[in-house]
Known about the structure:
The protein is an alpha+beta fold. It is 26% helix and 25% strand. The chain contains four helices and eight strands; from the N terminus they run βαββββαβαββα. The chain has helices at 16-30, 85-88, 109-122, 139-147; strands at residues 5-10, 33-35, 41-42, 48-56, 67-73, 96-102, 127-130, 135-137. Strands 1, 2, 3, 4, 5, 6, 7 and 8 form an eight-stranded antiparallel β-sheet that branches. A hairpin with a 5-residue loop joins strand 3 (41-42) and strand 4 (48-56). Helix 1 (16-30) crosses helix 3 (109-122) and helix 3 packs across helix 4.
Amino acid sequence: MGTPTIILTKKEGYSPEKLLADSIVAAFHAGVTLYFHNNQQYDEKGHFSYTTLNINERPFNDSSNSSFLFYIHSKKSPSIDFYYHEDLGLDTELELSQVGHIQDIYGVQKLIFIFIYEYLRVNPNDLFWITDYDWIYTWEDMQKLKSLPYDPDWCYKDPKLLPK
Length: 164
């Protein structure tokens, strides 16, 4: 089992269409390849549940390609409910949703870094959560990391310990 990551956003105003659009913009600015097949998944009642994007470092047919699946959830999906404010040191009054999931960061740390950097540049109030470590990366954290030489273990280090 790998280390999952999640984008957190304010519950009010969340739209899967906006997340999809912002992900396309982030992939464009990151210079990565994005494949969207519009393979929508539905729950047992026939309601939209989620769709996926495939984010790739190089064109899909390149054998040395690193990639990850990015899950975009419906507003009504129970998987977007967020209850971990205290675990993460977040204000309990802040109504957040877990909207974008990546199942495993291992082996694609650099690709995720450049994608999330660009995503948070477009959405500076959203948060990037490394779930196994209960670490939250903000836009400011990603800017600090970007100003340093790239560290392939960036996501396994507490962002609170970044240089000031």
